[in-house]
């Protein structure tokens, strides 16, 4: 299982094994090509790096702490660390990506920003950097998500972004992404599309993974300081599209001793017909310009996923994750709504940290790892639970 | 001479009409094809509905949802198309859709069945050129199916020449930025410059202009810059809430083609 080439790098056409690529209509070809031919070069420029590092430190608040969760550790009889991405400005890891992409957009000469959002965290992170840089921002959000994530809608509007409702399909993240792509087709010259996850046509999966890789870069340094080794035994992260997991896994991908655990949303249960467990229910196909695993019917129509969490109900996963699962480099675990809610309660009461509902799926997997007392487990605490208070209040019976 | 070459050799100002298979009702496909051709349509594009049609605006998204709810699928469509050539013997017919349903059906089998029912070509907007050349071109050729490529105002001259060299049907000139049925057309001067720039390349293939062409005035204007034009969303709108969809389709085409 030792890779001859790095798991980190897709091929020139953006493939991780059979997954990836750029399946875009001709109308998007110049936009995607402009990005593909320039992103690596721009990101390698010293002034880009200096500006990004300064913003990550002074604006986002990086490095985020790596916190040893002693009471959770005692409960699961292993050594658990929480990577506190919830302490990033705007409350989740999403801003690591938007800071990098807005700097990229400026260097590409773009004057307008669009984004899609599910739970609203990526929308808020995009609206935030647009306010910071003085660029107009349009965020597409499914009508259903607008209802269940009202505080984030208010935050985006307060930040000066225009939130547009996606009314088609299931009116959630998939449909918001469709609408953002259509906007980009209609505005091919002046607009940059900040995708929020490691999905979409090449180079987005690689671009977003690189911008989120700061998470695992910091983890290695912090683990060395706290445990004497850069390498943990497990890294655990939730996966919708998979951006926080990609960031948490990135600098461990080529370290075969580190087990990488990707936690999906099982919704009401994997086989309940109301689930978002793409690694189990998905088959190879094309969604949003990428060949990956996706939930579809026998005729190739994309089906509607379900999760109580608005950030995990995406019918696909990033092509990197599809590949890592296929070759056995990562392992998937699926967690139901109810188990995630129980984990919200547990983390809140044992550690004084109220996690986002998405993140709670990763925490709920702790009991299934088989980690021993000498093992070191890092959970990527990707976001905080403030945005989910409404959902938590409605499910108080499952939380207590 | 094949049906496509024949149509372009024998006619001018060709009208290509797009409609979604299975809309407004499941079994309208063949009656609509027949009615459109009888009223004067020169080429047909039959849409294979997809749940997530990225290049399409609200009208075709809507007709696709209805068609899927009606039970349309590629196997059902091929069954209906058994009657295609009895209904429209000479008219070039293209299937238009998105790659994923074709991929799930199986590309080789798709091409075999399409050719068997008398389809002339395929338009898959999200099939990238590089993928087509590497994995699809041989299969298309083997079954005698022609691929149609889209060109936009942003497509470079080199790429247009390359697309032209790979095509044996027509080039689909997207009129301006936006999805199908768009109402935000660029100004007439910008658009004319774009069409003239393409004309000056002296391409092998005829050109048809599509996206946002909705009526006779739009059709006539497009015909000044190309061999003809494609109308989709406006036709589908004309089929909404009518008792007799083929009759409505015929009226729509006569409205475009009348002298």
From TrEMBL, chain A:
Cofactor dependency: pyridoxal 5'-phosphate
Top-level taxon in the UniProt lineage: Bacteria
InterPro entries listed in its UniProt record: Trp_synth_b_CS (IPR006653), Trp_synth_beta (IPR006654), Trp_synth_beta/beta-like (IPR023026), TrpB-like_PALP (IPR001926), TrpB-like_PALP_sf (IPR036052)
Pathway in which the depicted protein is active: Amino-acid biosynthesis; L-tryptophan biosynthesis; L-tryptophan from chorismate: step 5/5
Domain (Tryptophan synthase beta chain-like PALP) ranges: 61-383
Gene3D superfamilies: 3.40.50.1100
Enzyme Commission number, as recorded: 4.2.1.20
Leader peptide range in chain numbering: none
Catalytic activity: (1S,2R)-1-C-(indol-3-yl)glycerol 3-phosphate + L-serine = D-glyceraldehyde 3-phosphate + L-tryptophan + H2O
Modified residues (N6-(pyridoxal phosphate)lysine): 94
Gene Ontology molecular functions: tryptophan synthase activity
Keyword annotations: Amino-acid biosynthesis, Aromatic amino acid biosynthesis, Lyase, Pyridoxal phosphate, Tryptophan biosynthesis
SUBUNIT field: Tetramer of two alpha and two beta chains.
Role summary: The beta subunit is responsible for the synthesis of L-tryptophan from indole and L-serine.
Similarity comment text for this entry: Belongs to the TrpB family.
Protein name: Tryptophan synthase beta chain
UniProt organism field: Hymenobacter artigasi
Gene for this chain: trpB
TrEMBL record, chain B:
Enzyme Commission number(s) of this protein: 4.2.1.20
Role summary: The alpha subunit is responsible for the aldol cleavage of indoleglycerol phosphate to indole and glyceraldehyde 3-phosphate.
Protein name: Tryptophan synthase alpha chain
Native organism: Hymenobacter artigasi
Class of enzymatic activity (EC top level): lyase
GO MF annotations in UniProt: tryptophan synthase activity
Keyword Lyase listed: yes
Pathway(s) per entry: Amino-acid biosynthesis; L-tryptophan biosynthesis; L-tryptophan from chorismate: step 5/5
Keyword Amino-acid biosynthesis in annotation: yes
Pfam families cross-referenced by the UniProt entry: Trp_syntA
Active site: 45, 56
Annotated catalysed reactions: (1S,2R)-1-C-(indol-3-yl)glycerol 3-phosphate + L-serine = D-glyceraldehyde 3-phosphate + L-tryptophan + H2O
